[in-house]
Each structure stands twice: as C-alpha cells, then as structure tokens.
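Researcher: I'd like a candidate sequence for this fold, 419 residues long. If you have to choose between options at a position, lean toward the conservative one.
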C-alpha cells in the first residue's frame, strides 16, 4: 500500500535519498560552536505476546513461521531464528539487513491459549528517510494487527538501538547523551507506562549503585569526567550485588547489567562501535504511537549531542516543558514534518503524568525492592543467553551494518557505500 495514502504527518516527499552524500554541505547557525546535527540510524525491537487469528499454534516455531510468511507476502523481508541463536546456520550477514523474528525469554508464553512471547527486531534504518521507515513500520504493524492478536502484558517492551549514521559514537557525544538521560530521567518516567518505571528490565540509571550515591550535579560531573567508553558504560549500567538483579544472578560483587533505561554496554565494550539502547518504552501495537516514540527518542539524542550544555542545567530541576521545548526545536532543525510534531505533542507530552514529588529522591529507586519468582527465573535465562536475544540480534545487525560501511580512514571517518 503506498505510504502517502495513510501518512498523518503530511510528509509526501521526505525521501532524502541523496542526503548522506551531501550532508557535509549543511551547516546550521543555531549554536555558538557550529555542532551540526548528527544523522542517526536506529533499529527497533518489539516484545509482544502474539497469537494467530487463523491457526492454533502449539509451538512458538509454528507461529514464527506463519508471521514470517505473512510479512514476506506484505513485502517485508525477514527471517526467523530459534531461541537466541543469532549465529544459527539459517542466519547469515544478509539476514541481519532484514527483520528478525525470535522468541522472547522476558515474556511468559501461554501455549494453552496459543499465545507466545515474540521479539521482532528491525534492521538499522536511516532516521532522516522518514517516509521509507514509516511505511515499513506501518506495514509490519498492519500485518501484526490484521492477521494476529497482540496482547500487551507488563512483560512487553519496545527498545530503540541508536547509532550515528557514520557507524560509531564519539565519546563526547555518548557522554552528552548519558548526561541528558540521567538529568531528564524523572521527566521521561512520566511519559512511559507505570510498569516501565519500576522494572528490573529498565532499571534507573540515575539511581544505580554508582550514580545514586551523588546529588545530581556531582552525578553529572562523574559522567563528564569519563575518558573511555568502558568507564562511561560502567557508570551508566552499574548494578549492586545486593540488588534484586544481583541476588537473582547470584553475583559475588557489583557488576554491569544491560537492563537499565539506557544501555551503554554495547558501545562501551567496543570503543563506541556499537549502539546505545533506550529500553523504557512499554509494548506498542499502534504504528502511530511507535513512529512518534522513535521520532521523540532520536530527536532527544540529537539535541543532547548538539545542545547538551543548554538543555542540561544541573542547578535547576529538570522540567517537562524544557524537555518538550528541546525536542520541538530539534524537530524543526531535523526537518521532521509538522504533523508528526503535533502527534508527539498530543500523544507523548500531552499524556504525561503529574510529577511525583518523590521522583528526584530515593522514591524513584534503582530497582523494585522485590521481584517475582517468575522474573527471577527469566533474569537468569536472559543472562545465560548473553543479555537476551534482542541484544544478541541487535549486535549482529550492527556488525552487518558496519560491514556495509567502508573501512575507517585513520580509524575515524567512514565513507558510505550503499546508503
């Protein structure tokens, strides 16, 4: 179906097929030091409880195969993998340029009801090519909502993996994003469902075992002073041995864990050659909601990287208005269609909860104090699987993307070939 028929953004022409070859000509004059807005790619990871409307599947594999063939019929290239095995013989470098369907250990399946926890992971897509990725997401969700029943439980979630278009993060950019993430955490909490504010799968970066010891301005200083990606990732993803997650995983000492609102571990382990992941969104089945959230998160990353000093003010409490203003300003610079900005205004910022007096205090908490036996078991399964199938597959997709970018000149600059 042609995307422009249903496009609610009023965006009929934003294909930008040529932008990557001439983007260096564009200079914005908005900031004192001319930091050009970096282009981003993103991959989306959706965890949902799914059942076929047509067939009563008794195994997850049957459901995966049906979803795979229906997506193929709709023109969406995809493959499915068993368990978390992203290296299985059926998967190769080419596969990870397509959508991946896998099981999700974080979601309880209900075989008697023919419902199974699935994870759908997109390839990395160029953010500025709005029309292209929006059309694809609408097709995927249309298939999910037409041929299948999707249920959102408290175990469902949506993650966004972000990487600059050139294929790697600069440390200064990653630090700027980390600062904004910590500073605005209590505000972003008001935008997500309650069950994503206190969960072992998206723990608080602000109140983690390391940063939680410090008042806001000191916590931000600890982030700014990092000189390596490893150091930055450790501070953003530091988990206490005595936390529910640490107890569950039988840890002997404090440790790094991917299950935080913002996960820096993939980029941290490879000097910036990896995605930074935002994990806090709930399960989403409506394409317009998903498109708005992706747009909001990418704009947040862009404005953090280009105007971090202006939007993070340690001496002031973070506010919803300042965050919204920063996102809308960036939307204009990134040429996001006005219709979409309106949908973000209504559907995300307009739905914010009232501030909770305890959010900038221990009330927010690094972790739920108690976790269920079921979650305890799932944490161990996911840990055994190397951080979960989503992480494994997202890494494979990232390396597949990187193989398509020419080798670095002087270890720094990528020249794009296929994009």
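Model: Candidate sequence:
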């Amino acid at each position: 179906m042609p995307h422009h028929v249903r496009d609610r953004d009023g965006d009929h022409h934003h294909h930008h097929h040529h932008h990557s070859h001439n983007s260096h000509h564009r200079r914005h004059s908005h900031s004192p030091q001319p930091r050009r807005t970096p282009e981003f790619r993103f991959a989306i990871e959706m965890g949902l409880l799914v059942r076929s409307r047509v067939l009563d599947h008794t195994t997850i594999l049957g459901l995966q195969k049906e979803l795979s063939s229906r997506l193929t019929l709709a023109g969406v290239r995809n493959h499915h993998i068993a368990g978390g095995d992203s290296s299985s013989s059926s998967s190769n470098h080419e596969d990870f340029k397509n959508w991946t369907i896998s099981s999700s250990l974080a979601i309880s399946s209900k075989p008697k009801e023919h419902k199974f926890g699935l994870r759908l992971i997109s390839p990395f897509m160029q953010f500025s090519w709005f029309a292209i990725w929006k059309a694809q997401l609408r097709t995927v969700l249309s298939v999910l909502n037409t041929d299948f029943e999707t249920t959102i439980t408290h175990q469902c979630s949506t993650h966004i993996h972000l990487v600059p278009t050139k294929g790697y993060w600069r440390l200064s950019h990653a630090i700027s994003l980390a600062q904004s993430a910590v500073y605005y955490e209590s505000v972003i909490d008001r935008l997500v469902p309650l069950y994503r504010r206190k969960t072992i799968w998206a723990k608080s970066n602000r109140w983690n075992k390391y940063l939680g010891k410090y008042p806001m301005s000191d916590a931000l200083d600890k982030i700014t002073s990092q000189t390596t990606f490893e150091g930055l990732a450790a501070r953003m993803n530091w988990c206490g041995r005595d936390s529910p997650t640490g107890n569950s995983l039988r840890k002997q000492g404090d440790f790094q864990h991917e299950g935080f609102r913002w996960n820096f571990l993939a980029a941290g382990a490879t000097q910036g050659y990896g995605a930074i992941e935002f994990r806090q969104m709930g399960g989403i089945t409506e394409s317009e909601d998903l498109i708005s959230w992706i747009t909001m998160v990418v704009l947040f990353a862009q404005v953090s990287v280009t105007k971090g000093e202006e939007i993070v003010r340690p001496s002031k409490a973070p506010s919803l208005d300042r965050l919204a203003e920063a996102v809308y300003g960036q939307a204009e610079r990134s040429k996001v269609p006005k219709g979409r900005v309106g949908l973000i205004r209504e559907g995300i910022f307009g739905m914010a909860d009232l501030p909770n007096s305890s959010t900038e205090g221990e009330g927010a908490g690094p972790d739920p104090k108690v976790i269920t036996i079921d979650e305890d078991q799932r944490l161990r399964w996911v840990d055994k699987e190397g951080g979960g199938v989503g992480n494994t597959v997202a890494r494979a997709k990232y390396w597949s993307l990187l193989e398509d970018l020419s080798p670095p000149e002087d270890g720094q600059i990528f020249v794009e070939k296929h994009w």
